[in-house]
Design brief:
147 residues; 73% helix
Amino acid sequence: MAVVADPADQLGIVRGAVAALIAVLAVIGLTSLVTTSLLGYRDQLRDVSVLRAMGLTPLQVRAALMTRTTALALIAVGIGTVVGRLFSATLISAVSRLYGLGAGIGIPPSAWTLAATVALAVGAAAVAGILPFRSAGRLPAVTVLGP
């Protein structure tokens, strides 16, 4: 008599692969954000200098830049969360059906997991976005705005 493997036994492998894929994509996303921030540093140095010339302290300049980065990250993460929540279960079920694991295994994450992930992503984006500007707030505005 042949023993038929239970497809549910293979879910641990699938969950591990999905978790690894999410981790890799998160690292790629953060690397892209830091790279973009570093490339935009020279372009935004003038903005920083204008803020300094207006009388903002270095801490206020960093807060303004962090607010801008955080707002953009919040919009992006919000859109990604909504779209991911709508389509993740359907796509996971379709792929699992394709590989013979059965349909209906794609369950959406809990509200707590989703909230923690959103908070982590927005926080990481805020930190990654402010890193290039740590010392820029201390530069004299005349140095950058001068001829």
